[in-house]
Amino acid sequence: MAPSSSSTPSEEESHPFLTEDIEGAFKLEDKTDGSQGSARSTKITPLPKAQLASLCAVRLVDPIAFTQIFPYVNEMMEFLRVTEDHSKIGFYSGLVVGDACVSHNTV
């Protein structure tokens, strides 16, 4: 509870910090100016379901988009002629995919 300008330090210290009403502790309370006594109006805030659903959809699509580079990395490494030994193309493809993962997670 925010101290008012008319309260003294002894009044602030005698007021309990936590409410005894456990259900009221989880609700957002609309503070009154003190003129109505101890009457408080509580307001439950709604859960933003549409915003949470869109965030979850984005978080689900992101790994799927990352896996789309896997079929093309080997072809790209062969086209760039990184090495003449075809058995090492997988190693360099792994380096590229690992670098893409690290750079994606740091941005």
Strand and helix layout:
Layout: H1 9-14, H2 22-25, E1 28-30, E2 41-43, H3 49-66, H4 70-80, H5 89-106
Antiparallel strand pairs: 1-2
Helix pairs in contact: 4-5
Q: How would you sum up this structure, described in words?
A:
Residues 1-22 are annotated as: Disordered. This protein folds into two domains: 9-43, no CATH class; 49-106. It is mainly alpha-helical and 107 residues long. It has helices at 9-14, 22-25, 49-66, 70-80, 89-106, and strands at 28-30, 41-43. The longest helix is centred in the middle third of the chain and has 18 residues, at 49-66. Helices cover 53% and strands 6% of the residues.
Characterize this entry briefly:
Residues 1-22 are annotated as: Disordered. This protein is mainly α.
Report the count of strand segments: 2
Through-space gap between termini: 40 Å
Radius of gyration: 30 Å
The helix-and-strand class reads mainly alpha
